[in-house]
Amino acid sequence: MTRASLWIVAALALSTAPLAAQEQLGSGAPEQHYRAGWTFTPTMGVGETYDTNVSLSGEGHTGNEDFIALVMPAAGLHYSGKHTTIDTDYRGAFLDYREFSALNRWDQRAKFDLRRQESERLTWFGNANAALLPSTDLIELGGIPYRKTGAQTADGKGGFVYALGAHSTLTSSASFQVVKFDRSEVNDEILRGGRIFESMNAYRQKVSERLAIGGDYSYRKAMVTGDKEPFDFHMAEAALDYVLSETWSFSGAAGVVYLQPTSLTAGNLGPAWRLSLERARAGTTFHVGYLRTFIPSFGAGGTVRSQDVSAGFRTPLFHQRHVYLDAGGVFRDTQPLEGVSVAVDPLTGLLEQLPLRSFRMQTILGWEPQPWVRLEAFYSLVQQTSLRAGGYLDRNRVGFQIVTSKPMRIE
Fold this sequence. Notes:
The protein is mainly beta. 3% of the residues lie in helices and 62% in strands.
């Protein structure tokens, strides 16, 4: 592979990251290694989970725990060609509550991913994701109160990576995302949903074998349901990527994010930061990251300042690659911006937008005795507080799942 192709691969990995990932207990089906051509992979899984707060009630809840049986059908269709890769996938999970049967429902997710290398310099891509989720704590978006309310998310993204030369690359993409919540008299004001359009452009110049510098610019237009006007964001950052050693790498960016004024809200200017440290060696991976920016609030509405700290690692155990430990966590702090629209707080009846501090973590202990089966035990913790009396909730889940899959070549 040429030096230009290597830079295209690195830029493509960054540009095709999902807009907003959704939490899923366990890591799913066994990893597959596809051969050239089309491959169809049916998957079936079963599991059992103990949940300490099935209704996502606030502080002081009692009698709210239950056991949940899981049935998890899935199917995937994959194509590997000389220059083209296509990946489609559907995963469902039916949640069968032992005591609170009124909460029984499906968790469903689907994705489509297409990558095409047109030449040594040009690679283009497109992807789409959709999800029907049983509760809002499964959505990785800031400014959303955790409630036992159904949510629907859909997003699409397309773009290209172009090697301007052996030492420089240009990445450009455009994306669109929609978030909706099941409506009720209780959550109409605190769970509003909306849509986002975003364009991103990034330039990287390789200075040495280890160092690359450049700049990123993104424009985002967000329309929160119920707001009269959209919010427009501009973010410009200077970026740096550095390979510390054969196993460690660092990526960072610093700049400003600007929220344009509207007829009802003032403009805001603030710092934007992005830092990431990663390690990969002998099947063991580790990462830690920090992100600070402005984001639209699909909860109460308006715009919030968001800070995220994340960390995770995966490692084989007992010198066996089929036995592994996978753990990670995210802490998010969202604070309302001054002069930006607010909503009614259902607890106090006052017109205000509350800060939210959220934490989630998951630990998985897994074993793949055969390439077609995976057994996992997991623990998941979700916490959130609005820094007000009665505004704290937590949810602990512990369980296991058995997932089998068998790839089938399509001739």
